[in-house]
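ESCALATION

Customer reports they have been waiting on this structure for their group meeting. Please prioritize. Original submission:
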Amino acid sequence: MSVAISTKQARNLALNGQGFDADATRPVTKHRILKAIRKTNMLQVDSVNVLTRAHYMPIFSRLGGYDPALLDAIVWGKGNKRALFEYWGHEASMIPVEDYRLYRWRMEDARNGKGTWGRIARMQREQPDLINGILARIEREGAIGASDLDDKRANSSAWWGWSDTKTAMEYLFWSGQVMACHRRSSFERVYDLPERIIGDAANHPPMDRSDAQSELICKGIAAMGVATEADLRKYFRLPTEDAKQCLARLVEEGRILRADVQGWKQSGYLCAHVNPRARAKPTCLMVPFDPVMWERGRVERIFGFNYRIEIYVPAQKRQYGYYVLPFMMNGEFVARVDLKSDRQEGVLRVQSAHLEDRFVAGDVAGPLKANLERLAAFLGLSGVKVMPANDFSRYLAGVPTI
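Update from on-call: job pushed to the front of the queue and completed.
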């Protein structure tokens, strides 16, 4: 038996579970920030800093302006003040500490030579003494970064300039034997033992592999509203066969329902208790690393919005720009803007702005300009400067601040 879901319902469901709760009359507290993160299950981490670090933005998109120091305290706080840990979720991610047990299977896979790749897998096989020596030093001396251990004579020309010590550290991180206690200004992780960072949570017995993956799938469906098997698998980077088996089990147990979604070629799944008539119509800017934007095919399937990140595309071949943020208005993607924090001039620079087909500049420009002004204030910049790159950019430049 399947539940019939319309295109409009699928869009509402996809947004309803994402924790959008912007309300300028309510202060953004640690509690609200953590609640929003638990809705999405994690914040993706990325080193690109042309605007701001990626993990700060999903909270802004969902709750509005807030003090980034509050998120820093949640991420890097001492003892029981730390509510998140860093590990491989979707990609490198900040994950609620209470979900640590749900990822132990991935750590065990890495220790057993499964799930790792490239140079990390070779390091595990070929240089166990180096790995064990680094772990022993951390146990003995405490928190340390790869650069503190780096042998400058090591070959650093292969694979993105990684040295053997950095690769060994990545293996220890992937296998859960060390954890990031903080990051340096260069965005380099500094590692220590998990029990020194998250305390007793690191010593809880691991869950059964299938139980843990099933729990992740349930959390993923709650966050995505309605999703295909591939959507769910990619959200947490689950092995294909494991995901299929867990989904079959969850459907049989009645925890998840199958759904026939209008226009979808694949079967959908949704929570048994979800209200398909729930509505969510946020208006916000999103970074490319926002959970809503993670899987481009899903974005196009649900929102009819074709988006590709162009950071790695040569400048002359880019269609929209280097760091392009989609702008959602009332639950629809209506524009996209290429943004840069110009810290020398102290402004949020709009390199270009593009209006989506079907939408009218006069309807979109005002709300977009208001959101850009709010973003500039959040980033500690004095205002917005729109470059006259095209017709819509020039229109946007002339719109007064609301």
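Sent to customer with the following note: The two ends are 50 Å apart (CA to CA).
Escalation resolved.
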